[in-house]
Amino acid sequence: MIDPQWDAAPGASTAPARNRRQDPCITLQELVLDSSDVMEFLAALAGVAAAVLSTITNTLSCGVTLRRRKRSPAAAGSDERGRVLEELQNDLHDGPSLTALRDDDVILVPDTGGENRWRDSMDALRRNGIRSILAVPLDLAGEAEAVMSLYSTKPLGFSGPDITAAEAFADSAAKSLRLALRIAHLRHARNDLTAAMQSRSTIDTAVGIVMAQNRCSRDTAVKVLTRASNSRNVKLRDIAAQVIASVSGETDLAPYFDE
């Protein structure tokens, strides 16, 4: 954990004038409701972080990296620079942001010009005009891993109060991101269930048609469709849709599901 009493360079912000027009917690909650997916939320979160944590003398870019099981890392930024810098570290598999993520600890780079760690990342960050970095992990309670990175074009760009403010914001951001991830999971589960029920409806209709045409039992009709599916190497639902189309010309039998 970074010492909040870290001594900033002369002239660095110690009582930053931040955007306090609305409680960031409320803003983040609204973002969860307004975002159509997790990536949209990450970009919006980064934008709010940059706006809230920038000061009059130190305009920040913010990047957020999210890692989920069986998925490629997702990166978003408050602007093009923030996004590119996150993707750069992900591509290099190293950097202060990924170290903060792996170690679950705040990482401060006071001056990229004098930083000997992460040499490839530091070279790239300096080429992009970045002189100081603050990376804060987001506690997602095991659901995934995420880190919020703040990029400044000024050396010694983060004072003790700046770090404290970033950690407080990260705590609220983590709670909102956890909620966004759970909502996304529920959406996917609902979509999968709806697709399964639609597929079942199509198959049941086709079974009924085969029973009527062949005057056979349900079990026999199911076997007929299954054999056709296996012999043609076509999904059972698609075979069922073909049967329905051959009778009525209608394959879109999606039922109404009351949510």
UniProtKB/TrEMBL annotation:
Residue numbers spanned by region Disordered: 1-21
Annotated transmembrane regions: 41-66
Superkingdom field: Bacteria
Record key words, sorted: Kinase, Membrane, Transcription, Transcription regulation, Transferase, Transmembrane, Transmembrane helix
Domain ANTAR: 183-244
An example molecular function term from Gene Ontology annotations: RNA binding
Keyword Transferase part of the UniProt annotation: yes
Name this polypeptide is given: GAF domain-containing protein
Organism whose genome encodes this protein: Arthrobacter bambusae
Taxonomic lineage from the root: Bacteria, Bacillati, Actinomycetota, Actinomycetes, Micrococcales
